[in-house]
Amino acid sequence: MRTGVVVVTYNSAGVIGSCLDSCGGLPVVVVDNASTDETCREVRERSHVQLISNATNRGFAGAVNQGVAAHNTELILLLNPDVRLETSIGGLETACSQDNTAAAAGQLRDEQGNAQAGFALRRFPTPWSLIFETLGINRLAPANPVNRRYRCLDADLSRDQEAEQPAGAFLLFRRDVWQQLGGFDTQFAPVWFEDVDFCRRVHNLGMKIQYVASVTARHQGGHSVAKLEWACRELCWYASLLKYASKHYRPYAYRGVSAAVVLASTFRAGRVMVRERSFRPITVYARIARLAGRSCLIGRVDEIQCWTALNKRVM
Q1: Domains in the chain, ordered, with CATH?
Q2: Per-block mean pLDDT, blocks of 10 residues, the chain (315 long)
Q3: Which residues contact 199 (CB under 8 A, 6 or more apart)?
Q4: pTM to 2 decimals?
């Protein structure tokens, strides 16, 4: 078999069955990050699927690396548990056989069958796109040119094309490239920006990623992330954003992104406090602002402050 499938789960009992059933005869490894629901039972009911059950949550990147290491196939298909294949993946395999191509992605569709524009394909985030994102400008004015370029809102998702950053929810990549890059970067833990970083490093090697519109899958979206508690989601997203910016931007650009996070945290603390009728958002966003402020001063992410922000309990 040329391709093996890796699925990372976290409390995914409601969707993992249909995902696995859609994989047909492909060898599948499911890496479960300490689910507390019936995810592992659902997986064990399918004898052809190998389950790696982690006692603790090792993060998405770490779990992906576990799954890839458990396969011996030439190609790896990374699927989110809320994705169901609709077609053969032969078109993706063919694309990965092209010269200098490291990965390929198909078209993700929502439950109504519409292409998931703005999510399935994106360009690499620039400092300005992350600044607009953190300040909420992209949400308030989604048609602004920075957001249109970042989310590929100008792209025709019905045609094949080269891609910068297809979603990691449905991504085929070559094992030898994964090995050359040292796998997914586990500093992006527990989640967010690890797939963006992987694609960025593929391009830094001078290799291509192809988008194949005829290969399709249905995608529910946000399944596992929605299971994270609100404060954890906010802390993880901002921390991973700052890590990505620190790794890929020059210090002056990184400081701009960090300053935007400080400003955004101030605004969001007040708005969420009123909405939730609680002072807890002040604690959460103050922690984010301290991390971003410290990182802004030194021109790179403060790993100690980052660890403290993610691991100290929020009261």
Answers
A1: 3-120+157-219 (3.90.550.10), 229-311 (no CATH)
A2: 95 96 96 96 96 96 98 98 98 97 98 95 98 96 97 97 97 98 94 96 98 97 74 92 96 97 93 81 92 92 74 57
A3: 103, 124, 164, 165, 166, 209
A4: 0.94
